[in-house]
Amino acid sequence: MTATLTDHALLIAVVLLVLGVSGVLVRRNLLFILMSLEIMLNAAGLAFVAAGARWAQADGQIMFILIITLAAAEVAIGLALALRIYRHFRTLDADALSGMRG
């Protein structure tokens, strides 16, 4: 992979990361927050693959497989928690979670 393609891939990864962070900070719905976390994990995976391709190493692909595994576990646990919260509060608004104290 040439340097310009690596630069473009890293630029896309930065854009995805910024979109994910803004989604986590702006949104109040728990499902949108989980999707924003997935976008940030995909940005990190893209950066690892681009760096691995730039230096012709398989380390980037190995890290991407680990990131995909982490994302699958995060989705399973996150959706289970979201369902449990919805059953208890009848909403997925993150501000309603302040009633969970005590």
Question: What general form does the structure show?
Answer: elongated
Classify the oligomer: single chain
SS-derived structural category: mainly alpha
Give me the Rg, rounded.
Answer: 17 Å
Give a verbal description of the structure.
The chain has three helices and no strands. The protein is mostly helical and 102 residues long. It is elongated. The mean pLDDT is 91.
Task: Give a brief rundown of this model.
The protein has 102 residues and is mainly α. Helix content is 78%, strand content 0%.
Q: Keywords for this structure?
A:
single chain, 102 residues, mainly alpha, 3 helices
Write the topology of this structure:
Layout: H1 3-26, H2 30-54, H3 59-89
Helix pairs in contact: 1-2, 2-3
